[in-house]
Amino acid sequence: MAKRKEKKIIAARPQLGDNVEILSAGEVLESPITDTLETNYMPYAMSVIVSRALPEIDGFKPAHRKLLYTMYGMGLLKGNRTKSANIVGSTMHLNPHGDAAIYDTMVRMGRSNESLLVPFVDSKGNFGKAYSRDMAYAAARYTEAKLEPVCDELFRDIDKDTVDFVPNYDGTTTEPPLLPVTFPAILANNTLGIAVGMASNICSFNLEELCNATIALMKDPQADLREIIPAPDFVGGGTILYDAAEMQNVLEKGRGSVRVRAQWSYDKENNCIDVTRIPPTTTVEAIMDKITELVKLGKIREISDMRDETDLNGLKLTIDLKRGQDPDKLMARLFKATPLEDSFACNFNVLIGGQPKVLGVRDILLEWIAFRAECVRRRTYYDLKGKEKRLHLLQGLKAILLDIDKAIEIVRNTAEESEVVPNLMIGFGIDEVQAEYVAEIKLRHLNREYILKRTEEIEELEDGYAFTDIYGDRRAVTIRQRREEHGVFGLVIDKTDAYNEIVRLRNISQHDQLTGLYNSSYLKKEGQKILDENANRVNALVFCDLDNLKYINDNFGHEMGDRYLKAMADLLTSMTQGEQCIAVRLSGDEFVLFFYGYDNRDVIEQKVRDGYAGRPSLRLPDGTDHRINASIGLAYAQRETESMDGLLNRADRAMYRVKHGEKNGIAIYDKSDEAGPA
Question: Theoretical Cys-Cys bridge with 510: which of 60, 143, 477, 522, CB 3.0 to 4.6 Å?
Answer without folding.
Answer: 522
